[in-house]
């Protein structure tokens, strides 16, 4: 509230007449004190001039009603061109308000008729500048909230398109509008939605992703959370604590894919791994989808089935001895001596062949988990071989049941 000292109508009139000169003085001070201001296009500087003139007019109108709260401050921003609001950041707007307030403090008090009026004008300028700053913050907050809601809808559309494999130009354009490079290598991570304070958890996930140099797109699909991460330009820091943004349960990482258009392949594997993850309760968090191949194959994932059979391709190319040794070793329960007796070779020969299997497949038959993967791969290969020998097995089985 202003002090109960009336401002003469003649003083208010002088303020109104001085509006144009004050606005010009403000622009001159902005060009002198703000290095970025002279680089603005002429139409944007004209927009700042218009906002400043409106602010002076609102200030003069407010002085005639000193007992009321300021109601007209936001009007100065409502008349601003939309392009101006998009080009200027909140920090730049606050700098403009600060410069304008300093100019008002220099030029308005001398327009007062006496000392009492001068004190009223000084206090009014300070309060009006504060209210203008608050009004600017409110305008930018509303714009950010609207933009955030729109970005969330775009983000959901992009993630949904990736999951459904609809990588069209519209999806790529939406991702680019969100600041996600469509050509960057993409990793898809799938898990459960945070049960408690999901907005805070997802916000922290985004912040950690940005700190690690990654772009991120987040999609919440009911109880399922899907995150698209771009590879950082520098050395990859790994997922680290990004998985803390997920809810309880497994978190599965799909293989990196080259670009957003190919992200459906990574999403398909990540989601297949998420469905199969309960079959491996001791899996790390996060776990790569490729580390769940046996469980995925048991769930009917054709891609995992093919990956398992491809795992044995180097053994077929190397000759039958390695594959026979692996089969005998695993079928015999992993006993080295009995495997050597069954093959009529020395145990050291079995050790050498198993080392070769490990080198060619990347899986060590002597390690329990790798042995499980290799055993499942052998089963998948046998099923494929049997289907090639008798492709009518399934049809004949159905007829027998009938």
UniProtKB/TrEMBL annotation:
PANTHER family recorded for this chain? CARBOHYDRATE DIACID REGULATOR (PTHR33744), PUCR FAMILY TRANSCRIPTIONAL REGULATOR (PTHR33744:SF7)
Q: Which family does it belong to?
A: Belongs to the CdaR family.
The record places domain PucR C-terminal helix-turn-helix at: 322-379
Q: Where in this chain does the record put each CdaR GGDEF-like domain?
A: 165-276
InterPro entries in the cross-refs: CdaR-like_regulators, CdaR_GGDEF, PucR_C-HTH_dom, PucR_C-HTH_sf
What name does UniProt use for this protein?
Answer: PucR family transcriptional regulator
């Amino acid at each position: 509230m202003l002090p109960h000292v009336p401002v003469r109508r003649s003083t208010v009139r002088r303020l109104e007449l001085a509006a144009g000169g004050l606005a010009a003085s403000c622009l001159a001070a902005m060009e002198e004190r703000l290095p970025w201001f002279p680089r603005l296009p002429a139409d944007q500087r004209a927009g700042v001039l218009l906002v400043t003139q409106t602010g002076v007019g609102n200030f003069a109108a407010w002085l005639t009603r000193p007992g009321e709260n300021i109601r007209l401050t936001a009007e100065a921003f409502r008349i601003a061109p939309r392009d101006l609001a998009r080009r200027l950041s909140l920090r730049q707007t606050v700098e403009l308000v600060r410069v304008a307030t300093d100019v008002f403090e220099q030029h308005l008090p001398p327009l007062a008729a006496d000392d009492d009026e001068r004190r009223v004008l000084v206090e009014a300028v300070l309060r009006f500048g504060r209210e203008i700053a608050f009004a600017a913050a409110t305008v930018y907050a509303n714009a950010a909230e609207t933009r955030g809601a729109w970005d969330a809808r775009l983000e959901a559309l992009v993630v949904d398109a990736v999951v459904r494999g609809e990588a069209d130009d519209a999806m790529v354009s939406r991702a680019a509008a969100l600041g996600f490079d469509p050509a960057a290598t993409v990793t898809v991570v799938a898990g459960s939605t945070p049960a408690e304070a999901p907005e805070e958890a997802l916000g922290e996930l985004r912040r950690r992703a940005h700190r690690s140099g990654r772009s991120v797109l987040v999609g919440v699909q009911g109880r399922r959370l899907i995150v698209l991460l771009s590879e950082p330009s520098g050395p990859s820091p790994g997922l680290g604590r990004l998985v803390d943004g997920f809810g309880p349960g497994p978190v599965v990482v799909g293989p990196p894919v080259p670009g957003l258009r190919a992200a459906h392949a990574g999403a398909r594997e990540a989601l297949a791994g998420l469905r199969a993850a309960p079959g491996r309760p001791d899996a790390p968090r996060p776990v790569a989808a490729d580390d769940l191949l046996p469980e995925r194959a048991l769930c009917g994932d054709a891609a995992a089935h093919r990956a398992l059979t491809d795992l044995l391709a180097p053994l077929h190319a190397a000759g039958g001895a390695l594959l026979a040794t692996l089969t005998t070793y695993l079928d015999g329960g992993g006993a080295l001596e009995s495997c050597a007796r069954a093959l009529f070779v020395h145990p050291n020969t079995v050790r050498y062949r198993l080392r070769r299997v490990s080198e060619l497949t990347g899986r060590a038959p002597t390690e329990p988990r790798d042995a499980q993967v290799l055993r499942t791969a052998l089963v998948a290969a046998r099923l494929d071989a049997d289907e090639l020998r008798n492709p009518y097995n399934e049809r004949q089985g159905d007829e027998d049941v009938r």
